Amino acid sequence: MVLESLPVIHDALAPILANKQATDAIWIVGAAVVASTAIRALLFLGNTIYTSFLRPAKKLSKLGKWAIVTGATDGLGKAYAKALAKQGLSVLLISRTQSKLDEVAKEISDKYKVETKTAQVDYSKFSEDVAANLRKTIDSLEVGVLVNNVGISYTYPEKFDKLDEATLRNLVHINCDSVVLMSHMVIGQMDKRKKGAIINVSSASGLFPMGLLTVYSGTKSFVDFFSRALSQEYPNLYIQSVMPFMVVSKLAGLKRPTWNAPTPDDYVRSSLPTIGYEDRTLGYWAHKVSGLIQYLPFNLGEKFTYNTHADINKRYLKRQARITAEAAGKKSQ
Ligand SMILES: NC(=O)c1ccc[n+]([C@@H]2O[C@H](COP(=O)([O-])OP(=O)(O)OC[C@H]3O[C@@H](n4cnc5c(N)ncnc54)[C@H](OP(=O)(O)O)[C@@H]3O)[C@@H](O)[C@H]2O)c1
């Protein structure tokens, strides 16, 4: 069809192409588009290099004596806790498992010579009593930094109706309620002192809708909007939405780093110095590059991500079916 219409297009363009002034104008417009795209690409590259490697970081220990980190015993939370202790902040570590909390608290206080406290909290059961107790502890501390890091995802990408109710509730309670309530516990004292930082760990899954991770994607976009709106209300505070792509962790199911999936320590080393400069960050140079996917036309980014998730779903279910069949075979022998 296109080929058939080529002579028609050629005939239609012929008078324009025969006109030197018209072809000169086309060349000029074309060159301007190419030049402006090249300048924008260079500016993006320069900005990414400057903000990722060269810009001086804010001194976070000036914001208050204590940092609080939720989900602090593994992955990104542990990395944030270590990085903040390294800057001289004492750390209140929060997660579910007391033995892991004790281990990380000891590791941090031994290495960085700062005070540590722990609070055993399961955010899937964050009752009024548990919250009131935690609020009492927090009220007794001068909190400079809160990292709302705790979060869970799906075991594998799946359609919404296949998820059980407990999983749905956990995703919303752990990923959203924790962020709202923890922020509420510290913001009054930060606002009074006119200093403090709240770092909300969202996800690149909150950049645009990601089907087959629908609830995770929705909760992370909630964290992002909550964070950005809160930042408007409290311009004196540093309130940041952090939106990583893949980082090596249990949640991500990744054991080894790659060029675009750093270790949690490397990710935090890169994202922490953006505090005070960026209210919303992808945090790591390779993630900033991956983030360009959101600007592709015709929702190509969304379509590509959906197809990738559908593929992972198929492979996961196939592997599970094989494991079940092998187990059944062994039983019957
Ligand atoms: N890793 C990635 O690729 C990636 C990408 C984008 C965004 N993120 C976000 O980054 C955050 C951290 O992820 P991660 O990969 O570092 O996770 P992770 O390695 O699985 O660590 C999760 C931490 O949260 C704690 N935790 C889990 N469930 C909890 C609960 N119900 N109550 C209290 N604490 C709980 C865990 O300790 P216990 O088990 O002892 O409680 C652990 O300390 C999450 O919000 C995630 O959505 C991660």
TrEMBL record:
SUPFAM superfamilies: NAD(P)-binding Rossmann-fold domains (SSF51735). One of its GO terms (molecular function) is oxidoreductase activity. InterPro entries: NAD(P)-bd_dom_sf, Sc_DH/Rdtase_CS, SDR_fam, VLCFA-Steroid_DH. It is found in: Endoplasmic reticulum. Its main location: endoplasmic reticulum. Pfam families: adh_short. It comes from the Eukaryota. Pathway: Lipid metabolism; fatty acid biosynthesis. The keyword NADP applies. GO terms for cellular component: endoplasmic reticulum. Keywords: Membrane, NADP, Oxidoreductase, Transmembrane, Transmembrane helix. The chain crosses the membrane at residues 25-50, 197-217. Belongs to the short-chain dehydrogenases/reductases (SDR) family. This is Short-chain dehydrogenase/reductase. The lineage of its organism: Eukaryota, Fungi, Fungi incertae sedis, Chytridiomycota, Chytridiomycota incertae sedis.
